[in-house]
Amino acid sequence: MSEQPLWRPNASRIANANLTDFINEVNRQYTLSLTNYDQLYDWSVKHSEAFWETLWTFASVVGERGERVISRPENDPNKNSIWFPDAEVNFAENVMQWVKDMPEKDAIVFSGEDESAVRLSWADLERQVSCIAAYLKECGVEKGDVVAGYLPNIAETVVAMLATSSLGAIWTSTSPDFGIDSVLDRFGQTQPKVLFTTDAYHYNGKTHDNLTKARAVREGVENITHMVVIPYVGGTAPNSDETCWKAIVSKPAEPLTFTRVGFNDPMYVLYSSGTTGKPKCIIHSVGGMLLNHLKEHQLHSDVKPGDKVFYFTTCGWMMWNWLASGLLSGATLVLFDGSPFYPDAGVLWRLTDAQKVTLFGTSAKYLEALEKQEYSPMDEHSLSSLRALCSTGSVLAPEQFDWVYSHIKQDLQLSSIAGGTDICGCFVLGSPISPVYRGQSQVRGLGLDVEVFNNEGNPVQGEKGELVCCNSFPNQPVGFWNDNDGTRYHKAYWDKIEDIWFHGDYVELTHEGGMVFFGRSDAILNPGGVRIGTAEIYRHVNQLDEVLDSVVIGQDWMKDVRVVLFVKLKPGIDLNDNLERKIRSTIRTSCTPRHVPAKIIPITDIPRTKSGKLAELAVRDVVHGRAVAQLSALDNPESLEQYKERPELQE
Fold first, then answer.
1. Cis bond leading into 343, ω under 30°?
2. DSSP notation for 64-88
3. DSSP secondary structure of 467-518
4. Bridge pairing between strands 359-363 and 388-392
5. What is d(CA 390, CA 303) in angstroms, rounded to the nearest whole number?
6. What secondary structure letter does DSSP report for 484?
7. Distance between CA atoms of 288 and 425, rounded to whole angstroms?
8. Three-class SS state of 110
9. How far apart are CA 627 and CA 631, in angstroms?
10. Residue 275: pLDDT band by 50, 70, 90 thresholds?
11. Which among 37, 292, 328, 555 has most CB atoms closer than 10 A?
12. Does the model's pTM come out above 0.85?
């Protein structure tokens, strides 16, 4: 691992960072002399109550905090601690505090594949939220009820979420690329009272019907009493028992009011990918989302009022919830819905320049695709406003770090962030006052005692192991929907090590204080009893010019496990002996002989979840003749047919 950073913030950037202001505030309050991120991190873990209490004030949270910061039971204090047990807050109220400061400035800018911008000022946002909240009240929605969106990533989705939150109700959403069965697997569990949808949506230059699917979902979820149709494409009128969005927001708006709820009351229900069974319905609290996202945006991402925050996401991924929280810091949300490669690879970068995006968020897979297409944003666009680039969804290989600095921008905070739907946030992420090292996530999240445990359950540094969190934190899930005794919740995170959060990532804590990811623990290869992270293989195979994508699994064979690599090759390329030798040689030279696959097999498609994550376990199940629990969780389930009963795997 290189000890020379790829990027260091200059003195001006450090001096003007929110994080520097926060360090100064901590020093003032507690008579300390902290000077850098590592010192602040150590303090935030050792004094986590003081950290979260200070953050509340620093970020100007609106609400009643109460006297107690945390309530700790004697048994399982980490799993069962309750943060700010006396506090009352409202998420939407914290967003709307910005209206008075900049009523005519943009709160949301939306752009689709036609690249025409639709703007919503802060005053417009407040008015529309008020209208939708009044409608929800008329529908009987109150604290604790669920409201759902089957929606693309458009401004109306944010409005509907904020209106729901203003009432103390619970928001849940999924994106229109989900099929009817996938949506019923989710909303059928949470039983929303009101459903928001669009008539259709655009993707890759085509228009796709959404209303027919939404009507089927309404029919299949008995609790839905009202459905609102947003005329996104136009041309399809709502039925008589459906309400048009425009009819609601065209009414005179009443003053917007807010129902404050307990800090730990539910705000969101998010869904696991559902590749191993019905999706888990993960409940996240109002206060947990509010406080943790303020931390991640303001301290780790240096988001300030007037900044422009963009993340390429759908409403079926937790990054949409993370993006929406940018409003809490007075930032403008820059939304995009459609293909990131239509009409060409420059569409998101033209948006970045046009809207002066300061934080650009995407997936490692997108960056890899740009590289494969030999598209260099730096050569085509100014990107003068861009200060930070976040990447998540899969491991960002060291070579991709090089590519970002060579082809996007040299003066850039590159944050490889990782956490998940489970916490609707990050365990490791960025620091605007710290260097970026090749192949590493910059830092562990403030207030989170993140460690790497070896097989003996001891913390290690410079060695591979399991990512764990050894303390309690506000954005732990409230629990799972319909898991009344907490059994499923306990089994998901707390069953491996007593009272310690076990996250399921195979990682290494570096001597620079960063984190390197090697893949999901449940997909780790184990030939001859040696643990190998799948990301180690992808890193080198996917860099080859001939390879577009790959997936690797362990196949049970002769009382052991052998490594099997499936490769998706560029059009016109065949997997001949020379290419096989090149792939094996690359892996042997770059990794170890144990990483070299026993079998290399060409395929034309790689299964991925709706959020773009590799479905390694689904491939492994198919190869072993086992049923895949939830095909509907996959974006391209038909691709699995290629992996069935392959003759190459019988020899």
1. yes
2. E--S-SEE--SSSHHHH-EESTT-E
3. EEE-S--TTS--EETT-TTSHHHHHHHTSSBTTBEEEEEEEEE-TTS-EEEE
4. parallel
5. 13
6. T
7. 10
8. strand
9. 9
10. low
11. 292
12. yes
